[in-house]
Amino acid sequence: MSKFNVLHHELVPEHYLVEEKDEAAILKKLHTEKGMLPHINVTDPAIKALMEIHGDIGPNRIIKIVRKNPNVGITEYYRVTTSEVLK
Description:
Layout: E1 14-17, H1 20-30, E2 39-41, H2 45-54, E3 62-69, E4 73-82
Parallel strand pairs: 2-4
Antiparallel strand pairs: 1-3, 3-4
């Protein structure tokens, strides 16, 4: 039985690991700081799938999420990885 990659499911939006060199530009564009971004846990299935592509993704990395909606179009969201238990 093959392992299922959650990123290939039609209901899961596209997830991308932002290069560290590009993080400052994104934060400037959003007029925010990394600590103000919503969190996504490193145990999230989408992050685990990204780890198979990029290797270990530790805490405090920015993830770009691209959602496609027929009514709104394409929207980009950003999350910062965390290893803390989210409540």
